[in-house]
Amino acid sequence: MEFECCWFNSGRSPLECPNIEEGEEYLYTSQRKRLVEKCLTCPSFRRDLERIPEDNELRHIVSILREEYLEQRGHLNSLSAFLSSKSREIKFLHELSMVLQTSMDLDEVLSVAMTAITSGKGFGMNRAFLLMTDPERRYLRGHIGVGPRNYEEAWQIWDEVDRSNFSLAELSRQFYKSKLSSEKAKFQDILEHLTVPLHDGTHIFNRALRERRPILVENAFQNPEVDPVLASTLGVDHFLVMPLISRNRSIGILLTDNFVTNKLITPRDMQSLQTFAFPVAFAIERASLYERLHEEVEKQVQANQKLQEQQELIVRMEKMAVVGRITATIAHSIRNPLAAIGGYARALLKSSATLEQKREYLENIVVEAGHLDEVLHEVLSYSDSLHPVMDYWDLNQLALAVTSELKPLLRERDITLDLNLDADLPAAWLDYKQISYCLRTIVNHVATNQPQVDRIEVQTSRGHDTVTLCVNDNGLALTGELKKALTTPFTAIEKLGMGIGLPLCKVILERHGCSFVIEDRPEGGNRYCIVLQHKKEEKTL
User: In sequence order, which residues have a C-beta less than 8 Å from that of residue 167 and are 6 or more positions away?
Assistant: First the structure.
């Protein structure tokens, strides 16, 4: 009897075996290994075995051993594949868990979870939807959907993933940076139809949460336990409902299906997703709590800031009220003595023909009395600024009236006055008396205290909803520290004296709801600007 297999045919060399492939050359020198790995599955060996007479016991024994071996080898291969799959799954879950445990950003957590479910390098589902309970725990609401909307988009996505060759972590990172918002918008219509009241005990979503177990839905369109609207919205007959539970707290629902491939979801798929669902639920809960905590902290910070502002306002108003009462008391206490001193001094000056030697002293009395009167006027103006009398006034007319009063002072100091008034200036909402005082104080300050000034310009202009009154000089530019000191009450400034004139202007304008700024001019010198509203501010009750 002539055999085909080289095992039985001594005339055939093992080198002629067609089943030995490249890399398996070690089988040429080992008959035992060649028999186990190649001959028992070789068609030639099976045919040779069948040529042995049936009454030969060796044929039956070898056949039984061969079949048992092939069965056991198939079982071992299946177990090996299963173990390899589980090893990859454990490695995959470990990688995902590390990201989920370290991230506090809800969107980043969702990006990792949804990418893992839908990626071929993860669980490989076609689509996934996440439903989350609202803060009041009254509804399950659709939060995000991931996957293709149609076949064309599916093939495009899969081709892009294959060409990119990204790892799962890289895919989730790319999704988080560039696709998260677009995916939310893409599935917005489906997500809106997935909203379910939590009190609806018959709905399959709530049943999965209540029973704390996944539900694999089959034949959804004819299934009496499935809402027809849900089946129609998803457009699939086969899907998985996976509850997300963290520390006995219902977080939401993961809804997955194979919309494109129509591949069945196996019990093994369900078991793998169930293992994955716990860290996802925990990470989502933690990120949501962190997000809420951050929002509450922001609210508290804003509330504390407003409270601090209110406290500062109350303290400032109390101080202003005290200052007002003090200034009024001081004014009434010194006005009469001041008037008497000035009156007696002027009377003595008129009869000074016989008191020539005392004229110098009497003149000093008059000058100092005038200084006291100016200080008194500023103190009273500060008190009056607490209660401004507002109306619409022509700012150009106000500027003309005040500068006319100051012309003698400017001529005495050889200072040229220029007026640059906007002819189309609208009426401004202001207290005429107080703004006149501010303009007069600024011009007087520049003329008497600013060195090297020989020209002053008074300018008016309009903005979108403001009018501006500026006093420009050509003197030396002031430093930032000096500008701040000039608007601080009773701050002594070397060579510029001490007073409350400019600080009072700032207070008056703040009460107008406007501003007073001192800034450098590009062409040299300084610019003192009063910015006023030309419309009355409407107060809401």
Answer: 121
Cα of first residue to Cα of last residue in the chain, in angstroms, is 115
Alpha helices (H) in 122-266, listed in sequence order: 151-164, 168-178, 180-186, 188-193, 204-211, 228-234
> Is the model's pLDDT at 108 over the cut of 60?
yes
Q: How far apart are CA 493 and CA 218, in angstroms?
A: 88
State the burial class of residue 364 (Cβ atoms within 10 Å of its Cβ: 0-12, 13-18, 19+): exposed
Give the DSSP letter string of 86-118.
HHHHHHHHHHHHHHHHH---HHHHHHHHHHHHH
Per-residue pLDDT tens over the stretch 144-193? 888 888 878 777 777 676 666 666 667 777 777 777 777 778 888 898 88
pLDDT digits (tens, 9 = 90+) for 185-195: 888 889 888 98
Q: Which helix (H) or strand (E) holds 410?
A: helix 395-412
Cβ neighbours around 282 below 10 Å, total: 20
Most confident of 134-143, 319-328, 417-426: 417-426
Please name the amino acid found at residue 304.
N
DSSP-assigned beta bridge partners for residue 458 = 419, 471
285 and 246 Cβ atoms separated by less than 8 Å: yes
Model pTM score: 0.45
**How do beta strands 249-257 and 239-246 pair?**
antiparallel
* Inter-residue contact 140 to 195 (CB < 8 Å): yes
- The DSSP call for residue 264 is P
Which range, of 49-53, 214-218, 434-438, 533-537, averages the lowest pLDDT? 533-537
Rounded to the nearest angstrom, the gap between the alpha carbon of residue 428 and the centroid of all alpha carbons in its chain is 40
Taking CB atoms within 8 Å and a gap of at least 24, the contacts of 509-518 are 509/438, 511/385, 511/386, 511/388, 512/388, 512/390, 512/429, 512/430, 512/431, 512/434, 512/435, 513/537, 514/466, 516/438, 516/487, 518/478, 518/483, 518/486, 518/487
According to DSSP, the β-strands at 416-420 and 455-462 are: parallel
Average pLDDT, the chain: 79
CA distance 300 to 282: 27
